Amino acid sequence: MVLINSAPVAYFCSPHKTYLDIAAFLGLYVKLPLTLDLLRCLLLTAVLFLGPLVRRLWLDHGWRELRGDVGKVFTTWIGWRNYVAGPFTEEIVFRASVVPLHLLAGRSPGTIVFLCPLFFGIAHIHHAYEFYINNPNRVVVMIIRSLFQFTYTTLFGWFATFVFLRTGSVWTSIAVHSFCNFMGLPDFGRVEGPKWRSAVYFVLLVAGAFGFYRLLWPLTESQHALARF
Questions:
Q1: How is this protein situated with respect to the membrane (predicted)?
Q2: Where do the domains of the chain lie?
């Protein structure tokens, strides 16, 4: 998969670049600074999910089930697909393979961030057909579900593409993708129990979004960036 999807970039780069240069351009090169970039981007993503993290680990006492949840990543096929194989293959295709081609075409970083994730969003529309096969009389629901899924996958794609360009590492995008899959979409319902629990949760949702906004640029700064904004 990596070789097939990387072949076009390698072909266009090969007359002027070494194999290590091509690997770095694809975000496949691994060095210590890139590992630090990965950890910073995971921290940034955790800040965005501050509310859901606190809810899962404290307000809902989910820390008791955390070990089992993590264990499912490596002991079930669904966990392996959602948190390992899925993020790896999708980031190789939609970040490491698609983004460098647009860079070679001379597109601006801003255009790449907003354009490339559309392919990622469209790639998930096939779920609409699966839903239709099982629910042929619920066409309106199918359309709403598909538009919603296209929206949030595209939004994530913007973030993943931004991270890829800013850090020059597809491994960072893979880690962020896996973490987001593990967390899922935030729950905007009230927390069970006393009202203060819900108040804390919603305050942390806002605080997490604000913290993400303030830390987006500092925590994605890297000397290995593929493009400068």
A1: Multi-pass membrane protein
A2: 2-14+34-220
